[in-house]
Amino acid sequence: MTDAPDSLIPYDEIVQEALRAVVGRVLGQVAAGGGMLPGTHHFYITFKTGAPGVDIPQRLRERFPDEMTIVLQNKFWDLKVEEDLFSVGLSFNQIPSTLVIPFSAITAFVDPAVDFGLQFQAVVDDEAEPIEPAENDSPEQLDKPAVERNEDGSNVVTVDFGKKK
């Protein structure tokens, strides 16, 4: 079997961006509908608390220094969706808080009401380093992109791309 040729098109980044747009579209529809979730839909959204653009209260950042999962179900307010981020009001230990979360910080989105979920690679600062020209990449450093369906029959889509160094 021959190795796949190096791609000059960043397919992995394009797919990640498109899947994150699904989250934005779903949240945008909820916001446009007055912030009411239809039927029994509810969302678990996991994000990197230290990702660029994340704005959460310091007490939450101290409690969740790496990653945090929020639930949008019954008690949330002021859901606002922009092109690259969303903001929402939630209570933590009965203290109201506003969270601003860029879509690039999201690592998982799940709607358990319909057994749907997406998982993303975390966007971290060390991944923002310049990419070397393709001819410098050796074949053993490249992994083929894989979109896998969970064996349990759920609708979780996992996107796993190898990181070029």
Write the layout of secondary structure elements.
Blueprint: H1 11-32, E1 43-48, H2 58-63, E2 67-72, E3 77-81, E4 85-92, E5 95-102, E6 106-111, E7 116-119, E8 146-149, E9 155-160
Parallel strand pairs: 7-9
Antiparallel strand pairs: 1-2, 1-6, 3-4, 4-5, 6-7, 8-9
Structure overview:
The structure is a single chain. This protein has a domain at 11-123: SH3 type barrels, CATH 2.30.30.220. It starts with 10 loop residues before the first helix and ends in a 5-residue tail after the last strand. Mean pLDDT is 80; it is low at 126-152. 17% of the residues lie in helices and 32% in strands. A hairpin with a 2-residue loop joins strand 4 (85-92) and strand 5. It is α+β, with helices and mostly antiparallel strands and 165 residues long. The strands form two sheets. The chain has a six-stranded mixed beta sheet with strand order 2-1-6-7-9-8, with helices on one face. The chain has a three-stranded antiparallel beta sheet with strand order 3-4-5, covered by helices on one side.
